[in-house]
Amino acid sequence: EAKNRGRSCYSFFDHELDERNKRLVEIQSELRNALERKELFMVYQTKNHIHDERVYGFEALMRWNSGKLGMVRPDEFIEVAEDIGIIDQLGEFALVQACADLQRFESYSSEPLTMAVNVSMRQLTNSDIIATVSRVLNESGLEPAKLELEITESLLAESMEELQPILNGLLQLGVTLSIDDFGTGYSSLSYLTRFPVSTLKIDRCFVTNIVSNKSDATLTHTVVGMAHKLGLKVVAEGIEDADQLALLRVYGCDIGQGYFFTKPLEFVDMVEHLKQQQPQPDWAI
Ligand code: C2E
Ligand code: MG
Ligand code: MG
Ligand code: MG
C-alpha cells in the first residue's frame, strides 16, 4: 500500500517534469521564428518622479504572443533566447523599437523623457553590444543620454573583469547604466563603486513589504542613503499603493515604478496615458 502510494507520487512528479520539459522544448522551437513572425513586441511602463509623480521616462518590457503557445512571460523566454543563441537579435529588436517609440512618446510630452531597456548577461559578454547600441543610436538619432541600459545585479557580480571594458565602452557612447533588481543577487557593495553605473533599482521584493515589514523598510532606507552618498540615483520597483509611495518619499528615493503609476502598456495605450498627463490648457478646464 505504502509502496504503491510512493510509486504513484513518484510518477506524478515524473509527469510534471515531462510537462515542463515539453513546454521548454516547445518554447525553444517556437521562439526561433517569433521575430520573423512578428510575434514579439514591446510594452512600456512609466517611471515617475517620487516627489511630484511626474513622468520621468519608461522601461521597455518585451512580450511574446506566440501563435501556438499564447502569451509567454519574459521570465520564461529570455533565458531560452540566451540558451539557443538568439538573445542578440531579440535585444537589438528591443533597442530599435524602444528608441523609436521614445521619440514618438516625447511628442506627447512637454518635458524630455528617458527610455530604459533591459540587457541580459549574454548580450553584455558579447562585445558586439557596443557596436549594436552605437548603430541603433545613430540610426534613430536619439540623444544617447536618454537611453538607459538595465543590467541585473546578480549577473554583475559574477564576471567583473570580463564586463568592465564592455561597460566602459557603452558608457563612452553616452548611455546611462543602471543596476536592476538590486538586493536580490549576492550583494557585494564594492562593485557599486567599481562599476560605472549611475542608477540603482531596488528590487520589488523590498518595496512590496515596505509598509508592514520593519527590516525591509530599514534596508530600503539605508540603500537609498548609501546610493546617494555614492552619487547614484535610486529607483524603486513594484510600487503598488500610495502608502508605499509615501514612505519612499520620506526616504528620499528619486524615481518610482509600479502598478500604482501604470501597468506595462502597449504603445497606443501609453500615448493615451501621456495625453492625460499633460497639463490642460486654460480653455479646456
Ligand atoms: P525587470 O527588468 O526587473 O522588470 C520589472 C518586472 O516587474 C516586469 O515584469 C514588470 O511587468 C513587473 N512589474 C512592474 N511593476 C510592478 C508592480 O507594481 N507589481 C508587480 N507585481 N510587478 C510589477 P515582466 O515584464 O514580466 O519582465 C520580467 C523580467 O524579464 C524583467 O524584469 C527583465 O529582467 C526581463 N525582461 C523583460 N523584457 C526584457 C527585454 O527586452 N530584454 C531582456 N534581456 N530582458 C527582459
Ligand atoms: Mg528592468
Ligand atoms: Mg527589476
Ligand atoms: Mg527582474
From TrEMBL:
It is found in: Cell membrane. This is EAL domain-containing protein. Residues 24-278 form the EAL domain. It comes from the Bacteria.
